[in-house]
Amino acid sequence: MSSSTTVGLTELAEAYLDAYNSGDLERITSFLSDDVHIVHHNRGVDVRGKQTASELFAGAGQVIPDKRFGDRTALDVIGSDSVVVRHTFTATALGDMPGFAAKGEAISLELATFLTFRDGLLVEYHDYG
Hints:
Elements: H1 3-22, H2 25-29, E1 32-40, E2 45-48, H3 50-63, E3 68-77, E4 82-92, E5 106-118, E6 121-128
Parallel strand pairs: 1-6
Antiparallel strand pairs: 1-2, 3-4, 4-5, 5-6
């Protein structure tokens, strides 16, 4: 793998995570491929397609508007099109979120997030933690 590939993937992952943290739905979905697959392992989330993913992000924004990734400990390129990010997801639930939190509860999840890109767009997203 060339260093330019590593830099490109790192920058792409950083840009996606910045978009996610912004809460701007249009900005977030601009990174998604039409056939994106998003899975939050251990949380019961498994969606396919840009429209369904957009609905997932919109719904999450209503219940946990302060959601964000932070406290990054690593962002490593693990293949020609993939990275793994070790970081913490934090938010406060404005309503009950089965499998995540009760209303008013602070959420803090240490995650390993695997991101796979194709042609500059996110095609696979897997959270573990």
